[in-house]
Design goal:
binds flavin mononucleotide; 7 helices; about 220 residues; single chain; NADH Oxidase; two-stranded antiparallel ribbon; alpha+beta; four-stranded antiparallel sheet; globular; 6 strands
């Protein structure tokens, strides 16, 4: 009986240790500042208010994006900020059409439901494209994106990275869309960023702290 009890307590301890590895760490009071707060408060937003973002705020956010570091300062990205409702609808329709009969993951699994939007109904969609000939371009684009995400968060503006945008816009039959947004042949779409005023406040997802190891 005693052994059983010890085994039970031991298992509980083991489970709680495992769980503590997967956690969202809080902000220590002495390291509380606006940058840390924006990083910790940012969430992927999947519900937006219909009104368009203030142009001055958007200009600042895009300016923060292009102030990201890039390999050899090549600024290898191409960025398109789409606010044309007709074009946004056609891009979404194209995704819905191609998704028919496919088993997709995440929110795209609901692609055939009425009112589905691959960019979550955001009034603005930023398309980020990488230079096909530059091996660092994906990293450049990722850094640009994070600057966009964090500067938006600092203004309480919601964002969501949309990887699905690459599959839609890099499809050979999507050349018309790329022409319409003036994308050069040298580039391919890396992802989109949905951006707009938040209409939800999702909880933080857990982070696996065991992915980080200090080697001293
Ligand atoms: C490269 C990349 C592609 C993503 N693609 C999508 C997407 O197509 N649709 C979506 O709703 N979220 C997408 N996300 C958002 C992730 O699901 C989200 O960042 C992750 O679940 C962590 O949640 P958090 O951003 O709220 O911390 C993507 C994120 C990244 C970095």
């Amino acid at each position: 009986m005693k052994k059983l009890l010890l085994l039970f307590v031991g298992s509980l301890f083991f489970i709680s240790c495992q769980e503590s590895k997967k956690e969202t760490m809080g902000i220590t009071p002495e390291h509380k500042n606006e940058v840390v707060e924006a990083i910790k408060n940012r969430r992927s937003i999947r519900s937006y208010k219909p009104e368009q973002i203030d142009q001055a705020q958007l200009d600042t956010i895009i300016d923060c994006g292009i102030n990201a570091p890039s390999a050899l300062n090549r600024q290898s990205w191409e960025v398109r900020v789409i606010q044309n409702a007709d074009l946004l609808k056609r891009i979404n329709d194209s995704f819905v059409d191609k998704a028919k009969g496919k088993e997709l993951k995440g929110s795209a699994a609901r692609s055939q439901e009425p009112g589905f939007s691959v960019f979550h109904g955001a009034p603005t969609l930023i398309i980020v494209a990488k230079d096909k000939s530059n091996p660092y371009s994906a990293v450049d684009c990722g850094l640009l994106a994070q600057n966009i995400l964090l500067s938006a968060e600092s203004m309480d503006i919601g964002t969501c990275t949309i990887g699905n945008m690459a599959s839609i816009l890099n499809d050979p039959d999507a050349k018309g869309f790329l022409k319409e947004i003036n994308m050069p042949d040298t580039h391919e779409v890396a992802f989109g960023i949905a951006i707009g005023y938040k209409n939800e406040s999702p909880e933080a997802k857990t982070r696996d702290t065991s992915k980080v190891q200090y080697v001293k």
